[in-house]
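Project outcomes to date are best conveyed with an example. Our students and postdoctoral researchers have been running inverse folding experiments weekly, and each run begins with a structure described purely in tokens. The record below, which covers 265 residues, was selected by the lab manager from last quarter's runs and is presented without edits.
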């Protein structure tokens, strides 16, 4: 696939207080010296989250969290299968904003070899926690995602899960996106999961629309699909009825996130 392509219709940025965002694991991004003010803002925002959000908000023991995660897993597997990434044993994978390595551990379950998996994150304590949780061989580092130390054309897959919505500085977003493209092998792909909804009650995040995604990743073939029932709706429906949650989650106007596959020519 070489021609640039964006699936589904154009969306404008959505601002809706109902559509407060959640994620499986909070992600942290380290930035270059030019963006230290933004780095400090991101650090402070996540520090506040520790006190502002209940500890069990995203627990897998909550039905709505489990249902959203299973849906995302299924969609990711379908995308990987669609683009013939079914044999992950030899693929090198980088997770930008890896947190404690949650998704890298998932890729091990899907057949990737630990020694081919790499993660980068802002907070050293998250990296240290990840090293305790991840299989031996997975390389986690606290580093600068806008100035990656990896060579050009290194990775078959580069992952980002709810990272870009935490970056408000446009220049920093461009730098991180450029680095992701640089280290990606020709024919490789970026796996994207993030939300396009802006929450007016949370000034620390901003939804990333398909238009902005196209601007951040020029020249890549972009496929985007809506996914994830709006979390406030999920928190109401999930505990009541699994069937109702699943029925509502297929109604794309009620979904707040994109899952995407961006292929490099």
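After processing, the design step wrote out the following sequence:
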């Amino acid at each position: 696939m070489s021609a640039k392509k964006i699936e589904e219709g154009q969306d404008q940025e959505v601002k809706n207080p109902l559509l407060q965002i959640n994620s499986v694991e909070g992600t942290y991004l380290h930035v270059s010296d030019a963006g230290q003010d933004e780095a400090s803002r991101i650090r402070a925002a996540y520090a506040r989250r520790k006190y502002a959000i209940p500890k069990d908000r995203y627990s897998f023991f909550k039905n709505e969290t489990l249902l959203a995660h299973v849906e995302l897993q299924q969609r990711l597997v379908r995308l990987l299968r669609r683009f013939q990434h079914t044999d992950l044993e030899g693929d090198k994978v980088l997770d930008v904003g890896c947190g404690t390595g949650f998704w890298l551990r998932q890729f091990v379950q899907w057949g990737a070899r630990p020694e081919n998996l790499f993660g980068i994150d802002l907070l050293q304590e998250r990296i240290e926690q990840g090293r305790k949780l991840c299989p031996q061989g997975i390389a986690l580092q606290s580093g600068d995602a806008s100035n990656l130390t990896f060579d050009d054309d290194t990775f078959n897959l580069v992952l980002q899960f709810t990272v870009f919505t935490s970056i408000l500085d446009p220049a920093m977003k461009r730098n991180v996106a450029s680095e992701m493209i640089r280290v990606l092998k020709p024919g490789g792909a970026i796996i994207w999961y993030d939300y396009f909804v802006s929450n007016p009650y949370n000034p620390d995040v901003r939804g990333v629309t398909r238009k902005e995604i196209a601007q951040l990743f020029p020249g890549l073939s972009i496929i985007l699909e809506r996914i994830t029932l709006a979390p406030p709706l999920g928190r109401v429906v999930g505990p009541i009825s699994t069937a109702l949650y699943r029925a509502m989650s297929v109604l794309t106007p009620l979904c707040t996130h994109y899952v995407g596959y961006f292929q490099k020519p």
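The chain has one domain: 14-263. The helical segments are 36-52, 63-82, 102-109, 124-133, 170-183, 210-216, 231-237, 242-249. The training component of this project remains on track.
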